[in-house]
Design a protein that fits this description.
Elements (H helix, E strand, L loop, with lengths): L6 E7 L13 H20 L2 E12 L8 E11 L3 E11 L7 E13 L16 H28 L1
Antiparallel strand pairs: 1-3, 2-5, 3-4, 4-5
Length: 158
């Protein structure tokens, strides 16, 4: 893998063990796939072992069926000192038709750590295109929103 790989896509078939009682792939399986892609993307960018610090805004838009070809696309959209904001989109289709549809999307924050689990500095990503700049600005807005939510949630944690 080349150093500082900014994006990647995992592809595989949804299997029978991924299905819930309603006959669709369950959210836990989708969240596992998201976490795997976020890890692979962040490790590719940072060349380090990374841990999940936050997963949010997960939107389940459409169901995934057994036998669907699933794609989990991950892309770095913001970097901090040791953290990476990864935008993820999950899409699925019948492999016979290849008519892909968005099923899930979210943001995951990964942190690069050393052997003792301490955060380590990572290469910075600088947005180049207009789309990059828009995604970068969105990541910054979401950081502010998470801070506000965290402050509001203090009432529940004492």
């Amino acid at each position: 893998m080349e150093q500082n790989q900014r994006e990647l896509t995992l592809r595989f078939l949804a299997e029978p063990q991924d299905v819930n009682f309603g006959g669709k792939v369950h959210g836990g399986a989708v969240m596992k796939w998201i976490d795997l892609a976020a890890y692979a993307c962040s490790a590719g960018w940072s060349s380090r072992y990374c841990v999940t610090a936050y997963a949010g805004g997960i939107r389940f838009v459409a169901p995934i069926h057994v036998g669907n070809l699933v794609e989990v696309a991950a892309k770095v959209i913001y970097t901090g000192n040791s953290s990476m904001h990864i935008a993820l989109e999950v899409s699925a289709c019948d492999p016979k038709s290849m008519n892909r549809r968005l099923t899930t999307h979210c943001i995951v924050i990964m942190v690069a750590v050393d052997e003792s689990g301490q955060p380590v500095k990572i290469p910075q990503w600088v947005p180049q295109t207009d789309e990059d700049k828009k995604q970068h600005a969105t990541a910054k807005k979401l950081m502010d929103m998470r801070k506000q939510i965290s402050e509001e949630m203090q009432i529940f944690t004492g």
